[in-house]
Automatic annotation (TrEMBL):
The keyword Amino-acid biosynthesis applies. Residues 303-380 form the ACT domain. SUPFAM superfamilies: ACT-like (SSF55021), Chorismate mutase II (SSF48600), Periplasmic binding protein-like II (SSF53850). Substrate binds at R12, R29, K40, D49, E53, S86, Q90. PROSITE patterns: ACT, CHORISMATE_MUT_2, PREPHENATE_DEHYDR_1, PREPHENATE_DEHYDR_3. It comes from Vibrio albus. Catalyzes the Claisen rearrangement of chorismate to prephenate and the decarboxylation/dehydration of prephenate to phenylpyruvate. It catalyses: chorismate = prephenate; prephenate + H(+) = 3-phenylpyruvate + CO2 + H2O. This is Bifunctional chorismate mutase/prephenate dehydratase. The lineage of its organism: Bacteria, Pseudomonadati, Pseudomonadota, Gammaproteobacteria, Vibrionales.
Length: 392
């Protein structure tokens, strides 16, 4: 349809037809992704084939330019999303085979911090929505209550924020992991989009009190420093802050939170993009009472905690073990050991499958040279990195 004499209604009708065709094609492609996963079981090939993905993108870009006059950025953006979806679908399929008891549970009881609309609540819906699981949502007032709800059996999973690209590690959660009996079974990285939310369309100068969780206060410190005469009040979560503003229903109070969550409380966005960093992400971990089996064909992470002796070079010795076996460390966090002054516990995230030979050898050596060592979990890497495109 290229004739400019078509009416707007006719053009929209054709657009609707094309959109339906796209949905059908995407559905067929998803189904084939599962068939790919089935074939990889027989050959034991890994889910990701970077060389094949790169060749696919290069071919698509070349065809898009020459045949359809589509630019490379447009094509790349669309197919990065399609490839990510395909990878996650295949991982979920293989994980269901490795953990058949979980695939028979379409219902998940999930504990998280705050009320509806909190960032932990949004992360819960995103993570379990990918797995087509119906949720029973259990909101909690603090992180300790979140973990206790799972430990007691009242919830199957807990979703906990562990680190943020702007404000860093969430120490309270790390300290809880030191003592919990729970295992890390998954992870999720979510974009965090902080806004100023109020009951009505007020000016920033009218705000006298601003409610939020301490983390957003920290992540938006540069913007907040420019507000004059504003008192910062801390709440258990961003959702509790939004609920507080809704209940007060005053023109001089506001909250920091997510714009879509604010709509749940009837709040309007007064100012968007207030975080110190425009690329603001929070990594969440999912914990449960039992560990999961991770398919060897899936990229995996292993998280462990360890304490070393107080002798000079003891931590370096432990890290050299990982280097010797070619295990990449993505996170090293130290926290004090409660009740043991001046002693520290180290949390280590590793890009390695727990059952791999290098990881097992490394654990054997680490056990002999550390004072304490515990594996907190081995879990699939859900953050699918975009394929690099190398054009000639």
């Amino acid at each position: 349809m290229t004739d400019s004499n078509y009416s707007l209604d006719e053009i929209r009708l054709r657009l609707n037809e094309l959109d339906d065709n796209l949905l059908q094609i995407l559905s067929e492609r998803r189904a084939l992704s599962i068939e790919v996963a089935k074939s990889k079981i027989e050959t034991s090939k890994p889910v990701r084939d970077s060389e094949r993905e790169q060749q696919l993108l290069v071919k698509l870009i070349e065809n898009g330019k020459s045949k359809y006059q589509l630019d490379a950025q447009y094509i790349t953006k669309i197919f990065h999303t399609i490839i990510e979806d395909s990878v996650l679908l295949q991982q979920a399929y293989l994980q269901n085979l490795a953990n058949p008891e979980l695939s028979r549970k379409p219902l998940a009881r999930v504990a998280y911090l705050g009320s509806k609309g909190s960032y932990s609540h949004l992360a819960s819906r995103e993570y379990f929505g990918r797995k087509n699981m119906e949720l029973v949502e259990l909101n909690c007032d603090n992180f300790k209550e979140v973990t206790k709800t799972v430990e007691s059996g009242h919830a199957d999973y807990a979703v906990l924020p562990i680190e943020n690209t702007s404000s860093g590690s969430i120490n309270e959660v790390y300290d809880l992991l030191q003592h919990t009996t729970l295992y890390i079974v998954g992870e999720l990285t979510q974009p965090i989009e902080h806004c100023i939310l109020a009951n009505s369309d007020i000016r920033l100068e009218e705000i006298k009190t601003l409610y939020s969780h301490p983390q957003p206060h920290q992540q938006c410190s540069e913007f907040l420093s420019r507000l004059k005469g504003v008192t910062l009040e801390s709440c258990a979560s961003t959702a509790d802050a939004m609920q507080k503003v809704e209940e007060l229903n005053r023109p001089d109070v506001a909250a920091i939170g997510n714009a879509s969550s604010g709509k749940l409380y009837g709040l309007q966005t007064i100012q968007s993009n207030i975080a110190n960093q425009t690329e603001n992400y929070t990594r969440f971990i999912i914990v449960a009472r039992k560990p999961v089996e991770v398919s060897s064909q899936i990229p995996a992470k292993t998280t462990l905690i360890m304490s070393t002796s107080q002798e000079a070079g003891s931590l370096v010795e432990a890290l050299q073990v990982l280097q010797r076996y070619g295990i990449n460390m993505t996170k090293l966090e130290n926290r004090p050991i409660m009740g043991n002054p001046w002693e520290e516990m180290f949390y280590v995230d590793l890009e390695a499958h727990l059952n791999s030979e290098p990881m097992q050898k490394a654990l054997s050596e680490l056990t002999s040279i550390t004072r304490h060592l515990k594996v907190l979990g081995c879990y699939p890497v859900d953050n699918v990195q975009p394929t690099e495109v190398k054009m000639d």
